[in-house]
Amino acid sequence: MAASVREAGLALVDPTAYADDERFHAACALLRREDPVHRVDGPGYRPFWAITKHADVLEIERRHDLFLNAPRTLLMPQATEEQIAASGMALRTLVHMDDPDHRLQRAIAADWFRPAAMRRMEERIGVLARRYVDLMLEYGGACDFAADIAAHYPLYVIMSLLGLPESDFPRMLQLTQELFGGQDPERRRGETAEEQLTVLMDFFAYFKDLTGSRRANPTDDLASAIANAVVDGEPLNDFDTASYYTIIATAGHDTTSSTIAGGLHALMTYPDQLERLRADLGLMPLAVDEMIRWVTPVKEFMRTATADYELRGVRIARGDSVLLAYPSANRDEEVFTDPFTFDVGRTPNRHLAFGFGAHYCLGAALARMEARALFTELLPRLREIEPAGDPQWIETTFVGGLKHLPIRYKMR
Predict the structure, then answer these.
(1) Which site in 107, 215, 299, 369 is 20 to 30 Å from 192, CA atoms measured?
(2) Which keywords does the record carry (predicted)?
(3) How many domains does the chain have?
(4) Closest to 51 in 3D by CA, of 42, 60, 43, 63
């Protein structure tokens, strides 16, 4: 556990801390209490201000005109930043953009995630949820829920939405896990930044071919909408198109996988809440939001100040970076009653796991629908469940959750 505020701040640049819930949340709680706008100057990283209070994260999110996503969107070691910049392979996705580019490019996929589109997908998602609960039955009472179920079900949903062939799903899963798991010994590809950059190269090569195919032969899927998008009278260039595919294909399933695995783990950890939810499935929308708060799969985004700004009496200078610590904001004692208790009926639940404002997660409604469908299918069929080994979390400073959740169970 952190013995000082400085040590607590350094936990934010330590991937192993995110794989240790108790250690990480203790560090964040210390920062919230004693130094909620804390300067972190960790070895190997450029300095930044850690923003750990819910109100402060919300304030910065609201000021997207003043705090920009570019040029420093994510926390990464300085050497990695420099390597990516030199390679010319830096992603330019919606999360990297500011207005007007962000507003114009967000519109390309927005209709695919609106309520009407979600209603059209509901039946299909229900079918997929049953398919994966049936698969648990086929496993014979034991599986690694994170790796065998949670990793695949949302992948199938988003890949189907894009219109990719099922034969390519395993490749997309591996590439996603390598991209988001670049700091995890089990997930990363190679030890060096150069080796890990080859993951992006593989993504871009795949999506370049996909773009060519959908432009030559458009189909009724999201991949075609992206490939044939026109912004300000011009088609997207190949780099922006590949970046767009990458964020949809990766964030579109990995974060939901983390929520589903972490949600089941929370229900096992709090068996009274599991029984409460089983007895009243009408609580499912609230329970899913509590799972999202509890897990908070996106650990941080960064912003850069375009002018001097004062926050809690601390001067953030023009050009300074701030880190929005979403897991910390989502356990803020001033906002959430008993924030370290998992409560399937929590209301209100003003979590910031999807961000806020202009950059609110495009796929939030889809993520909620997928989790609701799976647990609505699973819980009535689940007679007993217990851990079958120790859970393991991904080492990361960006996106992640459980990578292994061994369980034993009996089903109807």
Answers:
(1) 299
(2) Heme, Iron, Metal-binding, Monooxygenase, Oxidoreductase
(3) 1
(4) 60
